[in-house]
Design brief:
The structure is a single chain. With about 375 residues, the protein is an alpha/beta fold. It is built from 15 helices and nine strands. Strand 6 and strand 7 form a beta hairpin. Helix 3 crosses helix 5, helix 5 packs antiparallel against helix 6 and helix 5 runs parallel beside helix 7.
């Protein structure tokens, strides 16, 4: 009996100590990565400034790398190519994390340094902090390693695409090869974050992250087949969705409950109708969906803003979060959506949809080119 108690105590002690060791190791690794990113960012900013003011080129970076190796034997990660990558890292994120500061000519400066100086320069390394990211996004950014960051910067076209891959790398522990593969396969375009204004319209960080994960950029409605585009409009799409509401909810994802179509609101004795209304249990909020048979137009935002204001005032319960609006269109242009959402006060996003027999846009462009080639032949 006593032997069993001792064995149990040993097992509990081993588990407790093991957990403590692993947690501490992880904290040390995360902090080391934060410090490494801050160092690379600061060095990248310093070199970037010197390239502008002192016209540094590859020969100078070669010489700096060689001398660093001589003065710090065994130093790794400071080859000429890595120094150039640090510049890319700085240039890609300085809009968010700010300019670096260093001492030159006995004065503290940023992005200004005399090309001729008798004093040594001193680089100030600060924490990478920004109020443009929510807490979860910043934490993800700081856990991603420098090599991953460089590949994301090199291969991504927009800030939303960058942040999409950063979050996935941080949450799923992708290797660099896995990251490159997913970027080549255009994972962002296939299931990327829906263009939205959640960062500025939702005050709670956790709610922002939940909202970002709840919606996709593109939805395939495999219960709809469009043979003749001229015979279809948004009302016919809505009818098909209502007839197949279970399958539409499956396309939306988990936690959506259907509340109705053509949901009536009365404002100043006038009736208004929301195409589709849902409630999301995880977000604890109403979700209004407006269907459009056309490509996104900026004027759609004003109408959705009105619906969300009315829902929050007339329908939302006291314990629920602010309503979210989704404008579901046949297509969208990134810059147009960005400008349309930029100064709106209600949380909303813009997604696209396609029918079962419609190819993704990128394949459509390829086939269009083949058709043209066929005509020439």
């Amino acid at each position: 009996m006593e032997q069993n108690i001792i064995q149990t105590d040993i097992h509990r002690a081993v588990e407790a100590i093991k957990v403590a060791i692993l947690q501490t190791r992880r904290k040390v690794m995360i902090q080391a990565n934060k410090d490494s990113l801050a160092l690379n960012y600061s060095i990248g900013g310093y070199i970037s400034c010197r390239k502008q003011t002192s016209h540094w080129g590859d020969k100078v970076l070669d010489a700096i790398s060689s001398q660093l190796q001589q003065e710090l034997p065994g130093l790794r990660g400071f080859t000429k190519s890595n120094l150039k990558k640090m510049c890319v890292f700085y240039e890609g994120w300085k809009e968010f994390f700010g300019l670096i500061f260093f001492k030159g000519n006995n004065s503290v400066t940023s992005n200004k340094i005399s090309p001729v100086s008798t004093d040594n320069d001193e680089i100030t390394i600060g924490q990478l902090i920004t109020d443009q990211f929510d807490k979860a996004t910043l934490e993800a950014f700081l856990t991603v390693q420098f090599t991953h960051h460089y590949e994301i910067l090199r291969r991504s076209e927009s800030i939303n695409e960058r942040l999409f891959y950063i979050r996935r790398v941080a949450s799923e522990f992708w290797s660099v090869d896995k990251l490159k593969y997913n970027i080549r396969e255009q994972l962002y375009l296939k299931e990327g974050t829906m263009p939205n204004n959640f960062a500025v319209t939702l005050s709670d960080d956790e709610q922002k992250q939940k909202a970002m994960r709840a919606f996709r950029k593109n939805y395939k409605l495999d219960f709809i087949e469009i043979d003749d585009v001229d015979e279809w409009d948004e009302h016919k799409v809505e009818t098909k969705i209502v007839e197949n509401i279970k399958r539409f909810i499956m396309a939306l994802g988990a936690d959506f409950s259907y509340m109705g179509n053509q949901y009536r609101l009365i404002v100043d004795d006038k009736e208004y109708f929301i195409d589709l209304l849902f409630f999301n249990r995880r977000l604890r909020c109403l979700v209004a969906i407006e269907l459009k048979w056309t490509e996104f137009l900026p004027e759609f935002v004003g109408k959705m803003n009105f619906y969300l204001s009315a829902l929050d005032d007339l329908v939302r319960l006291p314990n629920e979060n602010p309503s979210i609006g989704i404008i579901l269109c046949r297509g969208q242009k990134q810059r147009t959506v960005e400008y349309a959402l930029r100064d709106t006060r209600k949380p909303m996003g813009v997604a696209t949809y396609r029918a079962a027999n419609e190819l993704p846009e990128e394949y459509g462009e390829v086939l269009g080119g083949l058709e043209g080639l066929k005509e020439l032949m």
